[in-house]
Amino acid sequence: MEIPYTVTARPDTGLWNAKVGIWLFLASEVMLFGGLFSAYIFLRLDAEPGYWPHGLLNVPVGTGNTAILIASSVTVVLAWAALKMRQFTRYKIYMGITILCGVTFLVVKLAYEWPQKFEHFGAYIKPSALEKYEPYLGNKHLLSEGLPPRVEITGHLHNHEALHDARIKDYEVGLDPIYTDPTNPKMDRPHPRASLFHGGAHGLREPDGFPALNVEYGEC
Predict the structure, then answer these.
(1) I need a labelling partner for 84 at 20 to 30 A (CA). Which of 11, 44, 127, 193 fits?
(2) Which residues, 6 or more positions from 207, have their beta carbon under 8 angstroms from its beta carbon?
(3) How many Cα atoms occupy the beta-carbon half-sphere of 69 within 13 Å?
């Protein structure tokens, strides 16, 4: 049995099956992402001050990747229009640009952005120990500015084996620079690998010549 309106439009709506199917797909995407964004908003509103991660994303790189995605959506439509008009040379050009944008997007994600996220490391400090780390957290300054406190020390973990080997008592972490100058407003957005610290059961110590900052397991 032949399915009606696969290539011809319905006389009452002027639509054919393919267009209705695309609209239904887009509607399902709106519902899916609407639910995800709603969950994000409620989780963020309910999070305690200082416990919601922020300032860890590279905004210029994310903006560039977004521009690449938008450009690829334009070129794929241009490729479709050229193909419909049987302009095969223009179709190949636009489709080639679309493929290039897709490859560029994946390279940025897989080779630059995501590896840094897997290496990033953080330890939440217990409320009873926050005063001990005040020189690195700068919570008194944040309180005077009406900003939420910092309760996490973050950086890039260099010795991943310390997570699985109980014999290793030190974590080697490249701290985010926000902890070197926590009262500087320009340091609100952390950037990895600014300085090298060593931390673990017996503490977190700076390179030779700097005072030690002890972090016990019971304090995080």
Answers:
(1) 11
(2) 195, 196, 197
(3) 10
pTM for the model stands at: 0.64
Could you list the mean pLDDT of each consecutive 10-residue stretch along the chain, which spans 220 residues? Answer: 75 81 93 96 87 76 94 96 95 97 96 81 82 85 85 78 75 74 68 40 39 49
What backbone phi and psi angles, to 5 degrees, belong to 171? Answer: -100, 125
Map out the domains of the chain as residue ranges: 120-219
Is 17 within 8 Å of 24 (Cβ atoms)? Answer: no
